[in-house]
Structures are given as C-alpha cells and as structure tokens.
Amino acid sequence: MSVRFEELDYRKTPIGELSLRRRHEPSLNVDVIEIKLGDEYLMSSLFTASEIALADLGLSALATPKADVVVGGLGLGYTAQAVLAHNSVASLTVVEALDAVIDWHTSGLLPLGPELSKDTRCQFVHADFFALAASAEGFDPEKTSRKFDAILVDIDHSPAHLLDSQNAAFYQSAGLIKLTQHLKAGGVFGLWSNDRPDNDFTALLGSVFDNAYDEEVVFNNPLQNKEFVQTVYLAKMP
Fold first, then answer.
1. Alpha carbon of 98 to those of 21, 62, 76, 198, 207: distances in Å?
2. SS in 3 state form for 178-228?
3. What does the CA dihedral 179, 83, 194, 98 come to, rounded to 10 degrees?
4. Which pLDDT band, with edges at 50, 70 and 90, does 2 fall under?
5. 69-87 pLDDT, tens per residue?
6. Contact (CB, 8 A) for 46 and 33
7. Which of 47, 99, 147, 154 registers the highest number of CB atoms within 10 A of its CB?
8. 215 and 234 in contact (C-beta within 8 Å)?
C-alpha cells in the first residue's frame, strides 16, 4: 500500500494552480491519481469510462481502415490510450495546452506516460487546442492544413461549463464551422461532457454537421455507490 496522500507535482499555469496528487482510497484498496485546478477536480483515475467511450464511440463511427486522429486534452491519458488500442489508427496527435501535463507523461510520472510516449503513432503537441481549431494551419505543426479522420475533445467540463471563458467561441456555430475545415470527408467530431445530454447543443451540432447525436455513458461511482451519467456528443461530416 502506498502512503495515504502525496502531492506529486504542483505548477502555476495561466488558468490557475495545477496539482497532481496520488492518494490511497481505503474503501476500495486502490491508489487514485487525481489532477486538480485550484480547488476543482479535473480528472481522476477512478472515473475513466466516459473518457474511454469518447475514443471507442468516435472511432466506431468511422469507415476508414487507417485513421488519423486528434485528441484535444491529454489529461491522465485514458482517451489517448483507448484510441491507440484500435488497430485502425495510423496516427494520433494529442494537443495539450498545459506543458506540465505533457511533462508528467514524458517523464513517466503518470502511469500511462511511458506507454503513450513509446508508441510511434503518437505525438504530443503543446498548444491551445481551441486556437488551432480556429486557425487555417490546424493541429499538426509539421504539416500545415492537414486534415484528420477524427477529432475527439475532452477539455472543458461541458459546452456550458468551461475551464476558461475564452473557450466559449468554439461551442458556437462559427467555431464549429472552423473546426470542420480540419476534418476529412466522412470525418467524425467527438466531444466529452461531464453533464447529461444537452438537446440544444446536439441540435447546434446538427446544424453544422451532416449528422449529430449524443450518447449517454452510465457508470457506477464506487465511492457513493450510485450511477452517474456523462455524455459523448458525436457529429459526422458528409
């Protein structure tokens, strides 16, 4: 058993104080890795079902046998790991705005870091995902205007609950239209949300993309012994 609580790293960032913690949860007899922004929990290794579902649902909607994928938001790495588990994935570009999070993976401080770092299909890009989505240059610093088969995003808590108010433009019609310039024909956009489905946002996606829908991800919270519902939004190019 590890120590009951340990702060592995602490950084000041443009959006607040970021901390990486490991604690032992005695009720489950497991070690839990958590990232906090100030007093707010960003992610926990206890709850990863919807992060994995984002990858699996997004890639299952593709028809291509060799997919080039973007993941917006590295976090603890569970979405990236789930993407790379698909043999159809030819390349993965993970865009992360916080250099601390990339450091935690490349240094091996996070459990999934070595696995992601050694996979030759995977590259980390230190950049603001939302700025790249709105740009003409796109997500690959080595190939301007490169298009992808899937763009999967797990950054904000939901389209209505943002980590940074400057991200709001992305979730409007104009921002989503700009995103489409980086998707191939038949490409898929996937978005994680901590909330239940928002019918208005699904309708907004449908006004921009050829087809849009939402999928509830239901999982058990072992600490509270009750079910929680999160959402994966999916939208497809014609």
1. 16, 29, 12, 28, 32
2. HHHCCEEEEEEEEEEECCCCCHHHHHHHHHHCCEEEEEEEEEEECCCCEEE
3. -70
4. low
5. 999 999 999 999 999 999 9
6. no
7. 154
8. yes
